[in-house]
Write a structure and sequence with these properties.
Blueprint (H helix, E strand, L loop, with lengths): L6 E6 L4 H12 L4 E8 L7 E4 L2 E4 L1 E2 L10 E4 L3 H13 L3 E4 L15 H8 L5 E3 L3 H10 L7 E10 L6 H13 L38 H14 L5 E8 L6 E9 L5 H9 L4 E3 L11 H4 L5 E8 L6 E8 L3 H17 L3
Helix pairs in contact: 1-9, 4-6, 4-9
The protein binds ligand 3JN.
């Protein structure tokens, strides 16, 4: 990307929960935006958003809307990405896509800047933003690579905002009804016949089940982690669980190494790792939790302790804002990589 004083940045899906946070993250991180072009479906066109204190009007996406765009941040779902990413690339933009549409394509980099920034520079017009649960796992686990990672067991506790703003509203409705209230029709997954209450409950399902008995969300954790770490055979055992939290995914993570490792070694590495905040003073009840992470771009790690029965395994708790580090913030960090090198 040629180096400029400011860049024309399009945001597709600008009125969605992630799209709004992409605009906020551009502002918060001081990204050099010369022109912001918020785009959405014709249904949402005309919506007024705010950027750096100024009103900006959302335009309907069209081929012309990408003319002169340097960087296009996409968060409008995989179908929209498949339709519009080639159009944006043809118009000369680099697309940073938050959907799963291109993540596993071999020639599309899948990037967490703290982990594999170099990969971003090998793009052919599209760079994929990983799944939210994968991003925070990678930020916490990649700094431990030199200890020889052999296996990861990860159980997630995922906020309802991962299913969109409707799910946030639905959970608040259910909570207001109290413990004997009606289930909404959203949980565990929009457009599935069977539904369960989400308030005062825990559901061991994020996204739909595949033939192997794992959910799509669980298989994203496996496949995306392997690609980002460049470890195609890494053993990752996932369980993805939805909990009645609004913002912030949590993960109980067990990492098994090639040799015996102490909790101190892990804490020390994580204490120096970019993007990680170690919060680990259990006696003072200091450990990560979703309300600590919500509204921030950091990944919080605590409860770092050696396994009771295996000296090669360390267990920890990892939390991040799923809509920020898990989506919008990471996408803007990728955009920064592109302009840092002028590529
Ligand atoms: O459920 C969550 O907490 C995260 C959901 C992610 C998601 C939901 C629907 C479609 C994705 C994703 O980013 O992987 C997609 C998708 O792009 O396929």
């Amino acid at each position: 990307m040629p180096q400029r004083e400011g860049y024309t940045v399009a945001v597709l899906g600008a009125t969605g929960a992630v799209g709004r946070r992409m605009i906020w993250s551009l502002e918060q991180r001081g990204f050099p935006v010369r022109e912001l072009r918020p785009l959405a479906s014709p249904r949402s066109a005309g919506t007024e958003l705010s950027f750096r204190g100024q009103p900006v009007r959302v335009e309907a996406v069209s081929p012309e809307a990408f003319a002169g765009v340097d960087i296009a941040l996409f968060s409008a779902g995989a179908t929209a990405s498949k339709t519009w990413a080639p159009v944006a690339v043809e118009a000369g933009a680099v697309v940073i896509d938050n959907s799963s549409a291109y993540r596993m394509e071999p020639d599309v980099p899948l990037v967490v800047p703290e982990v594999n920034a170099e990969a971003a520079y090998a793009h052919h017009g599209i760079i994929a933003n990983p799944n939210c649960s994968t991003i925070q796992l990678m930020v916490a686990v990649a700094p431990l690579r030199d200890l020889g990672i052999e296996r990861i067991i990860v159980t997630t506790y995922q906020a309802v905002s991962g299913m969109g703003q409707k799910a946030v509203d639905a959970l608040l409705d259910e909570v207001a009804q109290g413990p004997d209230g009606e289930a909404t029709t959203l949980f565990p997954v929009v457009a599935q016949a069977q539904h369960h209450p989400m308030a005062f409950n825990v559901l061991p399902q994020c996204d739909v089940f595949l033939d192997n008995g794992y959910t799509k969300e669980e298989m994203k954790l496996v496949n995306e982690s392997r690609k980002i770490l460049g470890m195609p055979d890494l053993a990752v055992t996932p369980t993805a669980v939805r909990v009645p939290v609004l913002y912030g995914h949590s993960e109980a993570v067990s990492v098994t190494f090639a040799r015996s490792v102490t909790a101190e070694e892990v804490r020390d590495r994580l204490g120096r790792a970019p993007g990680v905040v170690v919060v680990d003073d259990p006696e003072r009840a200091l450990y990560p939790h979703p309300r600590m992470a919500a509204g921030t771009g950091e990944t919080y790690v605590g409860r770092i302790r050696r396994d009771l029965f295996d000296e090669r395994t360390v267990n920890m708790f990892v939390v991040a804002d799923n809509l920020l580090k898990g989506a919008a913030w990471n996408a803007v960090q990728i955009a920064e990589l592109l302009i840092q090198r002028g590529r």
